[in-house]
Design goal:
The radius of gyration is 22 Å and the shape is globular. The protein has a 9-stranded mixed sheet, with helices on both faces. The longest helix has 30 residues, at 5-34. The termini are far apart. Helix 3 packs across helix 4 (218-233) and helix 5 packs antiparallel against helix 9. Helix 2 (145-157) links the parallel strand 4 (105-111) and strand 5. Helix content is 37%, strand content 18%. It has 411 residues and is α/β, with parallel strands linked by helices. The protein has 2 domains: 33-251 and 341-408, 3-Layer(aba) Sandwich (Rossmann fold), CATH 3.40.50.1820; 252-339, no CATH class.
């Protein structure tokens, strides 16, 4: 029996699609087998335990006392390791901080918060990537803030600490950062955990069986996403002992719907606060799973890359740069945000100690943190709320570090 021309076209398409899918799947498998490999580890510096406190003078301005934490001298290593981004094998950078100790040590992976992709005068920009820290006193107050606080103190206390730069920083500064795209950040985080194990084997550093996760702001959500990924896909090779995220944006779907609805009608001048909102919208659309929505569907000005979003926007008034979205455009954008929600549809196995200040106006506490805690507990998880009354996004840094260690030490 002869097939009509249309049938032949359909059959040809199906065969070609099947072959393409098989090739793509084989390529992806090949990439997966190459991820999480240590490429290099370069010694940076040694910091004496007696210098840890003087290297973080900002502590004098904050509530809390960390003077009892420095116990060990620490060695810093800049590492390069393999990961995957946009279906491409890439080489990411990060920092590993090792206490000088002969005892088997626990591993903490700390995930940094928001860093703008360009240098910022007093920190929180691209020059704050952990791998760029040289282990010396900084000249600018607040620069390399998180690395000096969490990398130095945690390691001097006795933990081996790894800190991913993430794509877009350090070794991959020519790439865009997938800002707040939790599933991408989690993949890159897992790859550093694997590479850190290889590093320890090469350096004959003894680890015990305990792996802890932590992170602040963007990194707080990333640490939760990393646990979710590990427990769903890496349970045979990696076990999380406990997690302590600080001020993460977990309930992204709830706020995304509000922002998409309200921001296009707001005439107030947001100044620099608008950057994070529209960068999140851009990055999640661009780098969450599935084809991106055309940017002209929701931006009123021409946007080709993240620098257009952050530097070339013509106004700080949302109504002048954002279009109101409806129908299929809005549906697809909401679906992209839904992928990055961490508040439901999974049951954490390892306990999570969730830290957040009630007066945080950077990453909202309301309808965010308690929603995740309650939902994950209703799913059977062990999630504990650490609420800091009256504290904002920054004022609880020392209290968080002290309480995190106290909770981790119970495991």
């Amino acid at each position: 029996m002869k097939l009509c021309s249309l049938s032949l076209v359909i059959l040809s398409f199906l065969l070609h699609s099947s072959e393409s899918y098989a090739q793509e799947r084989a390529t992806n498998t090949n990439l997966i087998n190459k991820r999480g490999k240590l490429i290099s580890a370069d010694f940076i510096n040694t910091i004496k335990a007696t210098d840890i406190i003087s290297f973080f003078p900002e502590a004098e301005e904050l509530e809390g006392d960390l003077s009892n934490l420095p116990n060990h001298d620490i060695d810093l290593y800049r590492v390069i390791y393999t990961s995957i981004f946009q279906n491409e094998l890439i080489e990411l950078s990060g920092l590993i901080v090792v206490p000088k100790s002969d005892e088997p040590m626990s591993h903490i992976q700390y995930h940094h918060g928001t860093m703008l992709p360009y240098p910022y005068p007093k920190g929180e920009g691209s020059l704050d990537a952990p791998s760029l820290y040289n282990g010396e006193k900084v000249k600018e107050k607040d620069s390399q803030y998180e690395t000096r606080l969490f990398g130095n103190y945690l390691a001097s206390y006795g933990y081996l600490v790894s800190l991913p730069d993430y794509v877009g920083y350090g070794n991959t500064s020519d790439y865009e950062h997938c800002y707040s795209v939790n599933n991408r950040l989690a993949e890159q985080s897992v790859d550093l955990i694997l590479a850190t194990r290889e590093f320890c084997n090469e350096k004959k550093i003894r680890l015990n069986e305990k792996l802890f996760l932590s992170g602040w702001s963007e990194g707080g959500a990333a640490s939760v996403a990393t646990q979710k990924l590990i427990e769903s896909e890496y349970a045979q090779s990696i076990t999380v002992t406990a997690n302590a995220p600080l001020a993460g944006f977990y309930n992204v779907s709830h706020y995304a719907k509000k922002f998409l609805t309200l921001l296009p009608f707001i005439w107030l001048d947001f100044e620099e606060d608008l950057d994070v909102l529209i960068w999140t919208l851009y990055a999640i659309n661009e780098y969450a799973d599935g084809p991106p929505v055309p940017k002209e569907k929701f931006f009123k000005y021409e946007v080709n890359d993240q620098m257009d979003v952050l530097i070339d926007r013509p106004s700080s008034r949302p109504s002048k740069i954002l279009k109101f979205t409806a129908g299929e455009t809005r549906k697809k954008l909401v679906e992209k945000f839904d992928q990055n929600s961490l508040v439901d549809n999974w049951k954490p196995i390892a306990p999570i100690y969730v830290h957040h200040g009630t007066d945080d106006n950077i990453v909202y506490y309301k309808k965010n943190t308690e929603v995740m805690v309650n939902n994950l507990n209703s799913n059977g998880g062990k999630v504990y709320l650490k609420k800091y009354e009256g504290h904002n996004h920054y004022s609880l840094a020392l209290l968080y570090l002290s309480n995190m260690i106290a909770d981790f030490e119970t495991h």
